[in-house]
Write a structure and sequence with these properties.
Layout: H1 2-16, H2 21-28, E1 32-37, E2 40-45, H3 48-57, H4 59-70, E3 75-80, H5 94-110, H6 128-139, E4 148-151, H7 158-172, E5 178-182, H8 183-196, H9 199-207, E6 211-215, H10 224-239, E7 243-248, H11 260-266, E8 270-273, H12 279-290, H13 299-308, H14 313-330, H15 336-349, H16 353-368, H17 372-376, H18 382-398, H19 403-409, H20 415-431, H21 433-448
Helix pairs in contact: 1-4, 2-5, 6-7, 8-9, 12-13, 12-14, 13-15, 14-15, 16-18, 16-21, 18-20, 19-20, 20-21
Length: 449
Amino acid sequence: MQSFKNAWDQTIAKLSECIPGAAFNLWIKPIIPVDIYNNEAVICVENDFTRDVILQRYAAQIETALNEILGFDITVKIYTKDDKPKNMVIKIPKESEEAAEAKQQELFVERSYTHYTFDNFIVGNSNTFAHAACVAVANRPGMIYNPLFIYGDSGLGKTHLLNAIRNKLESDYKGAQIIYLKCDDFVNDMVRSLQSGTMNDFKDKYRKADVLLVDDIQFISKSESFQEEFFHTFNALYEAGKQIILTSDRRPMEIPLLTERLRTRFESGLIADIQSPDYELRIAIIRTKLKPYRVTLSEDIIFFLAEKLKNNVRQLEGVIKKLMAFYDLTNTMPTLALAQDALNEIMNENIPVSIIIDKVLVETSRYFEVSIDDLKSKKRTDKIASARQIGMYVLSEMSDLSLGEIGKEFGDKDHSTVHHSIKVVEESIKKNPKIRQSIEEIISNVKNK
């Protein structure tokens, strides 16, 4: 174990030179080295999510560094504390606790959104009411419009307004207990508390807040137990006169499986919607987003983007970032043709994940002339296995799904099977240009059909 520990220390030092500091501290530093078994370097991480990130992004770099240091080929095997073999003893060093704390701090900073303010929120006919309601709540929390429920499609500014409220409250009310989180964070926090037997701490944390801001509350309908807990949290805060602000992609009455008592509470305050920005507002948004870059795009490009991107402010921001990156790298003003290319990329990037999954399955099935049932089956004929591996690879390239989530779409395959499949395809691409062409054709069909 000591020799592997020494090799791991050298590996860590080597990786710190090629992986950016924030990413290194977040994902690499907390890894716990275990030992080497049968040419497998066994390491341990905190949870499934961390394991999937490391497998997808850093496993190859870790293996390369270890191979160089040890002088022989070795593969990396990653366990979590929950799925390790029963006979495997993992000693968790004190440093890993500090690294875990640093990771939480990184996540907090990443999610802080301190740049979202009322001053840089662009107001137009589509969002005037929602903006005014948020300003009023930020000025008089708990006094009016409680709860405040904001709804609208993705990318229209709900998160911006929610964080503008939080940032103003944190500035005006020093020491107040202001909690902002995504609905999924509430759910995950509850699950962890149930597992660790700390539900009383969980309840105290949320029910003693002065202001509770929850983004994407529609996801609370995943489970009756989550709804039950949020119902009691809501009541405790409301009865204490504490401010509650919620956002959703739809009205309370349209949230599927939402219990009647939660729906009526969501509807008991003020409901404000955000609609798609009109043409004039889209032009204003583009001009405002360009100001930090101190670059003026031609009117043709601005009008073109305002005409084409009608329903999502986040897409406008994405196109502008791509055009400004081109300007920074080449010192050449973007052209209308470049704007068209950037627009096509952004539009394809924003295909809903559920649609991407369906299209990948359909196009992989069509290309290799195997059925979708075969792709999801346990059949291992060369033709089906190859199609399945490429399908998994394409889905990993076109989405942010975890390895486990990708495996579920291909017949409940586990994360290690998906990881192996992706590595097989990556090696095949290096050796056979036709494999790359096949993958590019499938991706193109997914995007354009």
